[in-house]
Backbone:
């Protein structure tokens, strides 16, 4: 590889990948490998969740490879990757293994492109067939969802904020990550109808009408937070100062929404297995049960593929439950 273009060795000027440094095996492979890795994790992948998942997959494999004959990047061969996944099959699901394989394929492809290695050792390793008929996210029963909204302490701005966030998740079927990104300008009046503008994953931009009761909940929070005349780029849902019941002025993080929901579930004695995504499942299943067309439900959910929308339909599970209850053995 003497004719490969040399990328300047200025690793100290390159940003750290996600939350940790690159494995030493990458640094030993030279500047091209470091550049390719930084380019892959920080340039090619824009979603922070994918960044963390792929970085974890790559670091886990490289750590294993160093102990099993692939001590340097240039020494890693397809059989090392195959042996790794054979061991991984003992402790992980098919979906996890396929995700890890995808991470390795893309990672090594970047190394080949930047002339850090000659061959992609993960390219010829086959993934496993995996078909999902129904999603795994638990559906929160509608009575529990109503109880959660109605029982929240709204005597302070943080309670009003939490109620508004959960109501947005329920009545728009949006993801928690999209709700966390909302700004004051994303809640606006459009000729007789209030709207919410969401920036979803995959670069999707969606406008969803706001029903009257949701509008009142959001407006109550905005009034209490003093955001009525705030600039359009002001975060709508803001993080709270610990135990002060005051807002920080900074956007709430999706992880904070998840933690908030767990606290609320615990306060009202509801199962902690539910997550913000459970509201999305409940909302879409409710629409299916009311006879709303699959196309309309798909449009509300913002899915590009109708098969993804069908994963949220829990009607079949209820039918199966009724059938097994009738078994008289």
Residues:
């Amino acid at each position: 590889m003497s004719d490969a273009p040399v990328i300047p060795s200025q690793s100290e000027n390159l940003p750290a990948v996600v939350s940790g440094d690159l494995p030493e095996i990458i640094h030993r492979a030279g500047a091209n490998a470091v550049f390719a890795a930084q380019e892959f994790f920080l340039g090619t992948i824009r979603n922070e969740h994918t960044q963390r998942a792929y970085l974890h997959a790559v670091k886990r494999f490289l750590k294993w490879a160093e102990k099993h004959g692939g001590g340097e990047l240039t020494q890693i061969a397809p059989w090392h990757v195959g042996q790794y996944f054979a061991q991984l099959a003992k402790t992980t699901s098919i979906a996890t293994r396929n995700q890890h394989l995808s991470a390795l394929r893309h990672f090594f492809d970047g190394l080949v492109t930047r002339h850090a290695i000659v061959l992609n050792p993960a390219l010829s390793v086959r993934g496993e067939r995996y078909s999902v008929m129904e999603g795994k996210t638990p559906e929160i029963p509608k009575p529990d969802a109503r109880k959660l909204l109605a029982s929240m302490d709204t005597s302070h701005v943080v309670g009003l904020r939490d109620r508004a966030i959960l109501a947005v998740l329920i009545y728009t079927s949006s993801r928690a990550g999209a709700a966390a990104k909302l700004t004051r300008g994303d809640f606006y009046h459009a000729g007789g109808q209030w709207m919410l503008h969401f920036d979803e994953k995959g670069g999707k931009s969606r406008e969803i009408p706001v029903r009257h009761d949701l509008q009142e909940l959001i407006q109550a929070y905005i009034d209490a937070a003093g955001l009525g005349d705030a600039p359009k780029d002001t975060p709508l849902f803001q993080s709270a100062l610990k135990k002060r019941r005051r807002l920080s002025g900074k956007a709430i993080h999706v992880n904070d929404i998840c933690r908030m929901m767990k606290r609320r579930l615990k306060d009202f004695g509801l199962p902690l297995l539910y997550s913000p995504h459970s509201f999305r499942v409940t909302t879409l299943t409710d629409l299916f049960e009311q006879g709303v067309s699959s196309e309309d439900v798909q449009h509300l959910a913002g899915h590009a593929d109708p098969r993804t929308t069908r994963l949220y339909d829990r009607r079949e599970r209820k039918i199966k439950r009724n059938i097994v209850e009738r078994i008289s053995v």
